[in-house]
Every structure is written in structure tokens, then in C-alpha cells.
Amino acid sequence: MFSLVLCCSTFATNIDTSIFVKSELKMQDLIDDILKSRELKERQEASLELERLMEETLKNNGSYDYSFGNLVGVSLQEPTDNTFRIFTWQLYIDKNHYLYKGFIQTKDGKVFRLEDKSPDMQTVQFSILKPENWYGALYYNILDFKYEGEQFYLLFGYDAIDFYNKRKLLEVLYFDKTGKPKFGKSVIEMQDSYARKLMVKRFLLEYSSSVNVTLNYDKDLDMIIYDHLIYGTPFKDSGPSNLPDGSYCGLKLSKEGIWKYIDKVHKDDPSKILVDATSYETIIGKSKGLSKKNQKDIFGRSK
Questions:
Q1: Could you give phi then psi for residue 200, rounded to 5 degrees?
Q2: Each residue of 206-229: pLDDT tens digit?
Q3: 2: number of CA atoms within 13 Å, CB side?
Q4: How far apart, in whole angstroms, are the C-alpha atoms of residue 282 and residue 230?
């Protein structure tokens, strides 16, 4: 209750914050239904109502200054320049089908609904996407960077593909000259199976649901760190999938604004090198979207 009163007290006196407080409480009830209801129809109806209510609320004058800090179950990420924020949540359909919902709200009052079309996408690592044609994910971190003098943002996301496999991804977000958000820019460097470097618009790290995998920015190393994966069978009677081998790859931002591939993050420590990095093709796999000791949870927080 204290945090709610505190955030509301920061508003200008000419803004009626009570409408945001009421909307937030209603949103939380809907999120609880989305996360806890056993009936698919109830989860879908709650998600649709949450979309309607959130869009209506975010379009109200003064809503950008309201923190929505009491929402549990919706990820809210915003960059350090405070020019926009992005809301995302997960809708469970069944054990082999998840959808993602979300909105981008800009500081100048624009609101964009995000439509998850990832199940129908082909070669998503090379595609430029729009809000109405979005690779759905639950975002857990955001990092701003410059490329060719323009502002870009790197989104870290989680995608629960199916019962056996999960994904984490790096998504590049920017705004075009009209102020509309776009997803995908060739600023991420990867290495193929022939040790050739290639540029991709987004990076997908697919792995077995039986393991934990890291993909996040490390402030101490000033680079993105992710688990190096190898192909194997994680447990009896399961199909083959990607598993971490204990070594790490990385991405380091260059002066030109390119996220340069680092083959072995700990190359100066032989005890931390287990195998050479495998190809990007092996890592990303073939399911959903291509037709689609400090552990952290999917929001990037320490467990």
C-alpha cells in the first residue's frame, strides 16, 4: 500500500490518478485469471479483456507517468532514456502452444498493440517485423545502444515454445521516421558451421526445457553472455535438444554499434573452456518460428 501511495503522490495535481489505480486493480484480477484458470476459454477471455483495458488505460492522459508497479504477472521494461515502455505477458494455450501479448507505450502518447504471429514465421532471424506481425516473447531486460548515430534497443526475451523446448532471444527494436516501432536490424554477429561470420536481425537460443540457460547483459564484463549449447538427449524417452556444456559465448558492442561475436568468454581460463562454440544453425533449432553458481529467472532476476 505504501508503494501505491508513493507512486501516486508524484503526479501533477491536475491529473486524476484514481482511474489508473482502479484500472491496475482490475488488470491484476485479469492477470490472475490468465495465470491460474484451468479453463482455456476463461484464460483467453481474461487476456482479451486485459488487452482492451490496458489499451484504453494507456491512451489516457497522464498514464505514462503512472508506474503500474503493482502489476504481478506482466513484465514492464523501459530503457534508460525513458522514451517508451513495453508491457508483455504470456497466455498458456496448452503444453505445446503459448501466445504472447503486449503493448508499447511511447512518452509522446502513442500506444501500439503487439500481435504474436511467430507460429507462422519463416527464417525469423533475418526478418523485419512490425507490431502487427511480432515475434511474441516475454521481455525480461532492455539495453539501449547507438548504431550509425541512431537510437536502438536490444530486448531480451523468453519464449516457452512447447513442453520439451524453450527459447531465449535477442530482439532489436527501433522507431522509424513516423515514430512506429519496428523489430529486427542486422547488428548482431554470429558464426556459422564453417566459422564464417554472418549478421542476423535477431538471435534465438533454443534449449531443452529440462535445463536453465543464461542470456543476459553482464555489467562487469560489459558484454552479453550466453550459454554455449551442444546437441544431445536431456533425459530418457525425450527427443534430442540443445544443452549447456558449461562454457559461454558472448556479444560485445563495437564502436560501430555492432554486437560482435565472442567465441569463448573465458578463453584466458583453461578450466572454463570445455568445447569450441558450435554453429548458429545448430543453436537455433527447427521448431516454432522457423517454420517458430548465479541462476536467473525469466525476468533476469537472481533466484
A1: -125, 155
A2: 999 999 999 999 999 999 999 989
A3: 0
A4: 8
Phi and psi for 204 in degrees, rounded to 5?
A: -115, 130
Q: Which residues are CB-neighbours of 199 under 8 A, at least 6 positions away?
A: 186, 187, 188, 189, 190, 258
pLDDT for res 120 = 85
Three cell numbers written together for 193: 558451421
Cell numbers found for residue 224:
552479453
pLDDT one-digit tens code per residue, 279-295 = 444 444 444 444 444 44
Closest CA to 227 of 183, 155, 167, 286: 167
In degrees to the nearest 10, what's the CA dihedral of 82, 250, 195, 239? -100
Q: Rounded to whole angstroms, how far apart are CA atoms 3 and 69?
A: 8
Question: Model pTM?
Answer: 0.84
Alpha carbons 69 and 75: distance in angstroms, whole number: 10
**pLDDT(189) > 50:** yes
Contact 199, 189 (CB under 8 A): yes
Among 90, 28, 76, smallest CA distance to 53 is for 28
Distance (Å, whole) CA 56 – CA 108 = 16
| Cβ 153 vs Cβ 141: under 8 Å | no
Q: Are 224 and 215 in contact (CB under 8 A)?
A: yes
* CA 118 to centroid of chain Cα atoms: 13
